[in-house]
Amino acid sequence: HVQLVESGGGSVQAGGSLTLSCAASGSTFGICGMGWYRQAPGKERELVSSITYGGTTTYADSVKGRFTISRENNRRLYLQMNTLKTEDTAVYYCVACGRFWGQGTQVTVS
After folding, report:
1. Distance, first Cα to last Cα, the chain
2. Count of beta carbons in the 10 Å neighbourhood of residue 58
3. Rounded Cα–Cα distance for residues 48 and 5 (Å)
4. Which of 16, 23, 62, 74 is 20 to 30 A from residue 50's alpha carbon, by CA?
5. Cβ atoms 47, 60 nearer than 8 A
6. Which of 14, 69, 12, 11 is nearest to 37 (CA)?
């Protein structure tokens, strides 16, 4: 069983920064990709960024140049978010192996 716990969400003014963290515990899950999704009120969940075990990253067009994903092996995942916009307001979820999900952390940009 894998448990993912996000932290680092909060409220920030537009133009500000936040860093989200995700800590993985429980059974190891081998060489897995990890990523961040988000879901804004009334909208579908969307992939924000992903990173393979080898470090290859992807970003949604809406966050390119502003967000940076990084990881420490299979145990910690980060999302550095800069120049935040009101449209970044959402619940952010950490995902591993495409099937293990965290409980989410709220990011509110005003």
Report:
1. 37
2. 14
3. 17
4. 16
5. yes
6. 69
Interatomic CA distance for residues 52 and 56, integer angstroms: 5
Structure token digits, residue 31: 């060489």
**Nearest C-alpha neighbor of 48 from the set 77, 29, 68:** 68
Positions of E strands within 1-110: 2-7, 10-12, 18-26, 34-39, 46-51, 57-59, 67-72, 76-81, 90-96, 100-101, 105-109
Nearest to 35 by CA among 61, 4, 8: 4
CA distance 99 to 53: 15
At 6, list the tokens: 């996000």
Contact 51, 70 (CB under 8 A): yes
Q: What is the full per-residue pLDDT of the chain (110 aa) written as tens digits?
A: 789 999 999 999 999 999 999 999 877 666 789 999 999 999 999 999 999 988 999 999 999 999 999 998 778 999 999 999 999 999 999 999 889 999 999 999 99
Encoded amino acid at 68, one letter:
T
